[in-house]
Amino acid sequence: MVEAAREGVALTGLDGTVTEVNGEAVRMFGFGSEDEPLGRNALEFIAGRDRKRVAVDMQQIRKQGEVRYIDCTLIRPDGTECPGEIRASMKRDACGNPVGLIALIRDITERKQAVRAAEEARQYAESIVATVREPLLVLDADLRVVSANRSFYQTFQVTAEETRGQLLYNLGNRQWDIPLLRELLEELLPKNATFEDFSVENDFPAIGRKTMLLNARRIYKEANKTQMILLAIEDVTELKLMQEKLIASGRLAALGQLSGSISHELRNPLAIIDSSVYYLKTKLRDTDGKVQEHLKRIKSGVDNATTIIQSLLDLTRMNEPQLARLDLRAITSEAIAAARVPAGVRVMQDFPEQELGVNADPRQLSMAFKNIVGNAVEAMEGQGTLRVTARSAADGRAEVSFADTGPGIPPEDLDRIFEPLFSTKARGIGFGLSIARMIIDRHGGTIEARSEPGRGATIAIRLPLNMGEPKEE
Amino acid sequence: MSQKARILVVDDNEEFCQNVRDVVELQGYEVLTAYGGFQALELVRQNGLDLVLLDVRMPVMNGVATFKKIKKIAPQTPVIMVTAYAVEQLVRGALRQGAFGFLRKPLDFESLFSLIENAVSKGALVLVVDDDRGLCANMKDVLSDKGYRVCVAYDGSTAIEKAWESDFDVILLDMKLPPLNGLETYLSIRDIRLNVVVVIITGHRQEMGDLVGQAIRGTAYTCLEKPVDMDELLSLLERIREQKAKGALEKPEWGLRDV
Fold first, then answer.
1. Does A272 sit within 8 Å of B179, measured CB to CB?
2. ipTM of predicted complex
3. CB distance B107–A274 less than 8 Å?
4. Which end of chain A has the least Cβ crowding within 10 Å, N or C?
5. Chain A, window 338-397: residues with a beta carbon less than 8 angstroms from a chain B beta carbon
6. pTM, whole model, 2 decimals?
7. Between residues A156 and A463, which one has the greater pLDDT?
8. Under DSSP, is residue B237 helix (H, G, I), strand (E, B) or coil?
9. pLDDT exceeds 90 at position B50
């Protein structure tokens, strides 16, 4: 019976002296023969540090007679060790009197290694999940959140408490409760499907309007035969904005190239009309008012056309900004002065005492501001108040805002007023604000329009502050 | 106005060319026309011209090539380049080689007339650049009385524009200018006008010391401090005129030592 076992078997007397071992035990300990351990105390084959504990366990077995599992380190005669598991019980004679112990011994090195490998794999996986910048959610088959990574909590500004155990659809203000997403997720487990790049655009509490791409995959846990879903969420809001801008600027560039070459060709015929008008005006100085009036009209028509051509060329021929450290207050007031605001418009400047240092190209920034002022003046039809405020904003950037008292911008047009050729005015073809935006973009700044219809419009520009010492050139 | 200055207008656009002739004639000038570079060179060889108005973009021989040949035939004849196109590099090249000025199409005739006067008048041509309009007006009065032709600019960009338009003999340049500072303005002008004499004027000598220093160490002539002593200015301009006539400019030593 002893020989057939796949475990090592050792019999001892009541005092712990080894009386018999099987072949497996000989192999396990590297004994020369089955006789080698006989007569020695079994505790000699337990590593010194575990010996006391094992001795106590053995005592317990002798007293209570029960079977016990003992985890300990085995030591071979050559001094090498291995993790072992001993199952020991009382050995009794025919009358039921205890005569010794039977110990079944296993070398559990492999099992330990497997456990450690599994643990390492788990830690590895967890560290990946924790490190990945994408927010990740693990959902159970009912679509409840099992766990989430740090990025998820950071991105959505939520805590583990309000997330774990919740149904996905109940998170936040039910922003994930989207019929198509529901369908996809619910089909995922039964069909062992995946889905990729499912786009969700939503207003998220705490973080505002964002575009997220969702990727999901089924995870099957062999151990407890459960299915789960790994849901990866990618914030592509910035990317999308960049793409939109790229498309817009591509359109601008194409438009610019075409119109740039047309503008040049238009200048020649305009030059002819212009010079003819000049000649006639001088020659016909003494004629009646009507003739003069018509000549004036031709001249102002030519001038308007020339101005439009110049704006088109400004758009196409804008160079990279040559940055220098400037005081935003000075640039702003100079641009206002250069914009030649008509007398009907009152300009109020509200600037801080201290300088607002920014890195900018003075000519380009001045052009941007002039265009914004010119646009405001046109919107007010030459009558009203333009309030220009410069300050250092809460986000550590410098802000200049131009608030007019014109009719304002309807909400649906707010996003479009910076597009080239977008104009609500009967006159002008709407390049001023496009040029302004292009310049501000190239300075790493932002420009936005705010308006309540009937209460005027505000164009606000933000530029990175440079509060350092002026650079030595 | 000078007595019957003779002006040659060169443009392959015949209608425009004739229009310019008609308008300029109304101002009392004598005007000739040419519709191409070769014809223009022919006229330059034949006649004592006071000024050439030259279109940049022309077929066969463009304006810049024509300009270079004119410079060889009649080096003293001022040439004003005219263009409807963005050919700044071409124009820049012509200015560096001594073209008198540059104008865009459609022509602003008032500018053209004052450019013509600048080009054909005998007095030295001075540009005063200062954002203090009062000071500009005073300098203009004082210098005009002494026979100088004076233009003014209140900011750096205008000054640069004026420098593209006319070949000034002397530029009086304030160092503190909106929105470009004096040094940037100075460098932009120097880029196209290799021979102009620039006198730096500053009321902020300490504050602007470094900019002034850089300009003077470069090719600026000297530096005057505000308030500008008009007598000193006049004698300085006289000295510059004499030195230029002799063909040897000498920078006053103190300008270097002082900053």
1. no
2. 0.72
3. yes
4. N
5. 338, 362-363, 365-366
6. 0.55
7. A463
8. helix
9. yes
